[in-house]
Here is the input.
Amino acid sequence: MSAGDGDVIRGVLRGTMTNGDEFNNIFTWLYDKVTLGDDTDAQIGAIVADAIELLFLQVVGEIKATTSFDTVDVYKRAGTVWDYLTTVVPAITPVAGTDDLPPGVAMLATAYTAKNKIFGRKYIYGVCEADVAGGALAAAALAAMADFADEYLSKYNGGAMGPLDYLVPGVWSTSLAAFEPFNGVAVVKNVLSYQRRRKTNVGV
Here is the structure.
């Protein structure tokens, strides 16, 4: 199997909190590929891992060091299903050393599309006491989340990609059965959020 221009790619980042609870974060892109030829599963896996690593590089200083980011499962949309391509191990190393807050407490970034009710939310777990000041995110944590949101909105070109090839970020709308790109607008909450996972592989 392979992935090429016009394919919708999904990366499911799976990790483990300090208390052993598992979490996942789902990222979706449209592959805008000018370079001739499709990528192999291994190539697209490496590209997706690089893109996710760049995102979390912005916030590793705010995440408890004992939070682990274990794998990224990579998929391609094929008709009405997501075809599995590969699994890669991301290089994401949190470094925050203060006590972490209860599971479910998270920093939140929301990115919007041109459709009013279609948007992407990213809950970032492993929040530490040092990330909070006066009931709100501390200045450093807020700045880190702003950088995360900026990367979340941005087209990705890196690793082994061609100079004019991009992963275009957005979300897959189940109601429209279509990919919706972000419109360049994101909001970061300056207060902590809480996200309770109800279904395996859904949300976060």
Notes: Helices lie at 41-57, 139-153. The first helix runs from residue 41 to 57.
